Each structure stands twice: as C-alpha cells, then as structure tokens.
Amino acid sequence: MKLFRFGSPDHEHPGVVLSTGQHIDVTHFGEDYDESFFASNGPERLTHWLSAHAPNCPQVSADERFGPCIKRPSKIVCVGLNYAKHAAETGAASPAEPILFFKSTTAICGPNDNVVIPKRSEKTDWEVELAIIIGKRASYVELDDAMDYVAGYALHNDYSERVWQLERGGQWVKGKSADTFAPLGPYLVTKDEVPEPNSLHLWLSINGKRLQDSNTDDMIFNVPTLVSYISQFMTLLPGDVISTGTPAGVGLGMNPPWYLKPGDVVELGIEGLGKQKQTAVAFT
C-alpha cells in the first residue's frame, strides 16, 4: 500500500495510491496518518475500508501539492555516518555503534516544497536517506523481532547546515533542524511492498548533475539492527521516523566543498518509494 497526504501546509488530507496508479482522497476514512492511526492497525483497517469504499473516493488531481506522507511524528531519530563510503569521504572512521541524533519535527515539509536556506547559513548541504516509519510502540526490541515494528518506508532529504552542525559546538541537531530541512515522502510505502529495504537504489542530483548514486546495501547498520538498537535507549512510538543515513556524494565531501545557493534544484529518489524535487530559496 502507498499512502500519501495532499493539500495546503498544515491542512493536508490522507490519500492512497490504488494498484492502478490512481491517487484517491480517503478523507472519509476519518483519520490522518498519525500516531493513533499506526497504533491501531491503521493500514490494515484502511485496506478493509477501501474494499467497500474505494470506488466512491474522489480522485486527487495531479496538480495538488504533496504534503509530508505522515502527520508530524513524536520524533525523528537520525543515524550518522551509516554508509561506509560516506564515512570515508568525510575522513571519519566507520562507527562501532550507530551514531544517533535528533532532528526537530518542525523541519518536516512536503517532498516538493522549496528548501529555505536559513538566515546566516553558510553551508547548507543535502543527504538522500531511507526513512523507516515505526508501526507500533517499540521498547527493548530483540533483533529477530525488529521488522515486526516497521510500518513502512519513505524518502527523506536530511538537509544539513554544516557550520551549525560541526563548527559551533554541541550536538548535530543544531545543523539539522531548520524549517524545510526534512522533506518526507511523497509516499509511505508499507513494508509488504518493500521486501528488501537493505538493497534499494538511491540517488540525488543538483541542477541535473548526479552527485549521490548508491544502494542501501552500503549501510553499516541495516534496518532491523537500527530499530532494535535505538529501542534500547528510547521508546519508539507509532509513526516515529528513523532516518538511516546518507551515502557518499554530499557537498561536505567534495573537493572543494560545494553547498546550496538560491536557485539550485535538488532532485532525489529511492527505488520504489518515489521522487522529490526542491528548489533552494533564500530566507526572507
């Protein structure tokens, strides 16, 4: 199942992509894609509802804005340096354990919304990432059980202001949390449609130039390992996001480094999860 949300910011409606590719409005199902939805077997209940009501659901126009594919979650947990080649390009050793940091949920936006280069930003960078969406409350999860807690997956661009992240002291969250720094979607694809999340092609281009071109099989810590590991330190709630790290090809790793400027067009995608497109604009 592919879930999406559409409409104006903060007023999105839920939608579903049918097997025909048709995008339909499921507002009359009566729920948004939030913690309560996932905690109460939402995808299964929605599937059952669609069996009776799909023919009567309005079609969503191709002109509609895609919103983030889930309503604002309780947290976004990110994983740093989780691709071997990305760790190498930054000059860092591959981590012995997952490096964790948070990203503010206020950074979440639609997959094709403009990315706003923050006020006084010097080094706004890009990071295509596979996002895991948690399906049920997870605490002290055993590795062998970890996939039972996954609802599905989404495309995420983990935008990063490198000065604030790396040169201003403190934790990485400062460089990760500006408004529009977490475009998510267009789709949440349920795990039954993504049988091999640890073998997905992902890519990112700037102004038509391919800069990131890799596969999730380069992840140091795979999907079940991350779900289990993170749950040892915090409770993951339904709808929470784990962003699993980025492959090589970020601006920080280039020689010389290269960062976004107003007018740049960022395009990215992950096999089976859809594509995003953002235009960089200056803060006003």
TrEMBL record:
Domain Fumarylacetoacetase-like C-terminal: 75-279
UniProt-listed InterPro entries: FAH (IPR051121), Fumarylacetoacetase-like_C (IPR011234), Fumarylacetoacetase_C_sf (IPR036663)
Pfam families (alphabetical): FAA_hydrolase
Keyword field: Hydrolase, Metal-binding
GO molecular function: hydrolase activity
Family: Belongs to the FAH family.
Protein name, entry field: Fumarylacetoacetate hydrolase family protein
Origin species: Spirosoma flavum
Organism lineage: Bacteria, Pseudomonadati, Bacteroidota, Cytophagia, Cytophagales
